[in-house]
Amino acid sequence: MNSLTEKQIRASLRNASKREAAQATLPDLDALDWAQLDYLGWHDRKAPLSSYVVLELDGVPTGILLRSSDAKTGRARTKGVCAWCEDVVVTDDVSLYVARRGGASGRNGNTIGTLICTEFGCSRNVRRRPTFTEAGNDPAMRELITDRRIAGLRERAARFVAEVGKTR
After folding, report:
1. Cα(68)–Cα(49) distance, rounded to whole angstroms?
2. Within 10 Å of residue 160's Cβ, how many Cβ atoms?
3. Pairing mode, strands 40-43 and 111-117
4. Residue 78's pLDDT is what?
5. CA 147 to CA 21: how far, in whole Å?
6. Which helix (H) or strand (E) segment is 164 a member of?
7. CA-to-CA distance for 122 and 138, rounded, in angstroms?
8. How far apart, in whole angstroms, are the C-alpha atoms of residue 54 and residue 62?
9. Are the CB atoms for 130 and 145 separated by under 8 Å?
10. pLDDT per residue over 48-80, tens digit each?
11. 151: nearest Cα among 32, 3, 38
12. CA distances from 143 to 74, 78, 83, 148, 150 (A)
């Protein structure tokens, strides 16, 4: 992922009002390893139920505001598989995130949701070393599996963000 500025991130939020985008608490952008990220995801430390995801759609930064019913509130998280990284090793830290659709549809209350790693660790999960069962001892197979995981994450995350932007 290419590094982004605060201004680019705020301007990219498609389903947030100008006020919501301006009030969003951003992570420390200088501390991020952009080369290891397929998308930027974070929780708003001032609004515990608000989270954000920004990724590149057709080379353009595109972000969405997400709501979680359980992140950071102490309730039990869902045991399941993240719909984006599909990591079967980490299955106990997944939350349901819901995004308001863009445009008039979102203003009318229409939303779309999916299960995502609670701490947005998908980029790390898809880069984990494949197990022996997955790839054996073949280094080329390990690299191929990792490349496929990364491509799958990017495709599934982009599809969700694009769907949020659609009005129905």
Report:
1. 5
2. 21
3. unpaired
4. 57
5. 33
6. helix 139-165
7. 24
8. 5
9. yes
10. 899 999 999 999 999 999 998 764 544 545 578
11. 38
12. 38, 30, 22, 9, 11
The Cα 164–Cα 4 span in angstroms is 21
CA 130/CA 54 separation, integer angstroms: 27
Render 94-153 in DSSP notation, one character per residue.
Answer: EEEEEEEPSHHHHHTT-EEEEEEETT--HHHHHTSPPPHHHHTT-HHHHHHHHHHHHHHH
Distance CA 41, CA 44 (A): 10
Instruction: Map tokens 């598989």 to a residue.
Output: 81
Q: What's the one-letter identity of residue 29?
A: L
User: pTM for this one?
Assistant: 0.89
15 CB burial (10 A radius; 0-12, 13-18, 19+):
buried
Strand order in the sheet with 40-43: 40-43, 50-57, 60-68, 94-100, 111-117
Query: Are the CB atoms for 37 and 1 separated by under 8 Å?
Result: yes
